[in-house]
Each structure stands twice: as structure tokens, then as C-alpha cells.
Design brief:
There is one protein chain. With about 250 residues, the chain is α/β, with parallel strands linked by helices. The chain has a 7-stranded mixed beta sheet with strand order 6-7-8-3-9-10-11. The protein starts with a strand and ends with a strand. It has 7 helices and 11 strands.
């Protein structure tokens, strides 16, 4: 089932009399349950594409259909509803509220969705349990390690049972060992829940963990390949080290 269907998407930023095409006639389809990495250097357009995928912005032209809804022409209120319903965000810097417990941090998207107090607490506890933090529900972020804080952020992204987990450089603030643990958790969630995971990164060692790797350059999709070497437990994560990409074959 096609979850994301982008056709001829262009995003133009205007600065005075100058125009800059951050995305140029992009076509992209992602099916429900895929694990996808979007990779590219700084200035490639990957962050703009992430904003489009996350319903944080709308294209200048072209269409974006998410879960059978055309979100490309939505206003801010409609985009906010689409985000809250469909997408769980995971950021490099966690974006947790420092004076609030892990449980209350995780509850926040459910509160915005209008979920009742008892139900959102239940959902938040289940999400924290899913990321292995059932014993840390009352801890504040400052009482947790970086890896634990990112797990809280992942639980927060899961609490509304979204269609997509959208992760922006999710291991960028972590050491290599902790980063591998977070990526292992993504593997587990993908395997056990069948959730669609999209990781946006500049690092090929992180992209190697995905089943499909989309490379973007100068606002265009440069390649879209199936990663036949990805595995759920043993793929290496060598932060900052140059390693060869695995054998790849064209995606169908």
C-alpha cells in the first residue's frame, strides 16, 4: 500500500529578486512498512524534503498525498492535524521539556490530539515500555543519559500510533555505541510493529541500516536503491568512520 505519493514536487525559496530551488521536480513513493534512509550532504535538499514529508511546509508546486490525503495545499491548521495524526518526529537534540518527567514528555502529543488523561497516560506508559524505559517514567531529562533521552523522544513519537516515524539525524548527539543502540531500537520497532521509518542523514553508516536508500543532491533524487545487505542485528555503526556502502541493487 502506498503511504506517501509525491509527484513533481518543487520548492522555491525567494530572497528579494533571487530564487533558489531547494527541490526540483521530485517524484517519490514510499509504501507502508518501509524502512527508508534519505541521504545527502548539506545543501542537497534533504532537510527541505524532510519538512515536506513531515507536513511542516507545503511545496511551491506539485502534489504530496499522505495516507490518501492531499496535504500539498493544506493550511497551517490542517497541516498541524495531519502531522499529529500521521507522523512521529525524532530530532537530533531530543527536544524534551527539562522540568517535566519522561512520562509527561511522552504524553504531550496525545494531549495535543485531545486524548483523555487516563488514556494518554496508558499510551505513554506503553510507549516507554516499548523503548525499554518503564523504570524511568518519573525521571526528568537531566537525570537520564543521552541515549535514554533519545529513547524518551522515540516513545513520544510513538504515543499517537503514527503511520510514520520521521527521524532527523537521530544519532547525531550520541556516541557510536549509544547510537548503535538507538538504531537497533529502530530495527526492533520496524520488525515488531511494521511501522514506516524514514531516517534523514548525511552519514552513510546510518543509511546502511535502512532497507532502501534514497540519495538527494542539488534538489534532485540522484539514486533510489534497495539495500540488500541491511540486517536487523549486525549492521555496523561506525560514527565518523569511512566505510564502504554495502552491495546495492535498484529498487523496484
Amino acid at each position: 500500500m502506498t503511504l506517501i505519493d509525491i509527484r513533481n514536487m518543487t520548492k522555491v525559496y525567494r530572497m528579494g529578486d533571487n530564487e533558489f530551488k531547494a527541490l526540483d521536480s521530485v517524484d517519490l513513493q514510499i509504501n507502508q512498512g518501509e524502512y527508508v534512509a534519505i541521504i545527502g550532504p548539506s545543501g542537497s535538499g534533504k532537510s527541505t524534503l524532510m519538512n515536506m514529508l513531515g507536513c511542516l511546509d507545503v511545496p511551491t508546486s506539485g502534489t504530496y498525498v499522505l495516507n490518501d490525503q492531499d496535504v500539498s495545499k493544506m493550511n497551517e491548521t490542517q497541516l498541524a492535524k495531519a502531522r499529529n495524526k500521521n507522523i512521529g518526529f525524532i530530532f537530533q537534540r531530543y527536544n524534551l521539556m527539562g522540568r517535566t518527567s519522561a512520562l509527561r514528555n511522552v504524553e504531550l502529543p496525545a494531549r495535543y490530539a485531545g486524548m483523555g488523561s487516563r488514556e494518554r497516560t496508558k499510551q505513554a506508559r506503553e510507549a516507554l515500555n516499548a523503548v525499554g524505559l518503564s523504570d524511568k517514567i518519573n525521571n526528568k531529562p537531566g537525570e537520564l543519559s543521552g541515549g535514554q533521552q533519545q529513547r524518551v523522544a522515540i516513545a513520544r513519537a510513538l504515543v499517537n500510533n503514527p503511520s510514520i516515524l520521521l527521524a532527523d539525524e537521530p544519532t547525531g548527539a550520541l556516541d557510536s555505541k549509544t547510537g548503535k543502540e538507538v538504531l537497533d531500537l529502530f530495527e526492533q520497532l520496524h520488525r515488531e510493529r511494521g511501522i514506516t521509518i524514514i531516517v534523514v542523514t548525511h552519514d552513510p553508516t546510518i543509511a546502511r541500516r535502512a532497507r532502501r536508500i534514497i540519495s538527494i543532491k542539488d534538489g534532485h533524487i540522484e539514486s533510489d536503491i534497495a539495500n540488500v545487505s541491511a540486517n536487523a542485528t549486525g549492521a555496523p555503526h561506525l560514527n565518523g568512520a569511512a566505510v564502504a556502502m554495502p552491495e546495492l541493487v535498484p529498487a523496484h
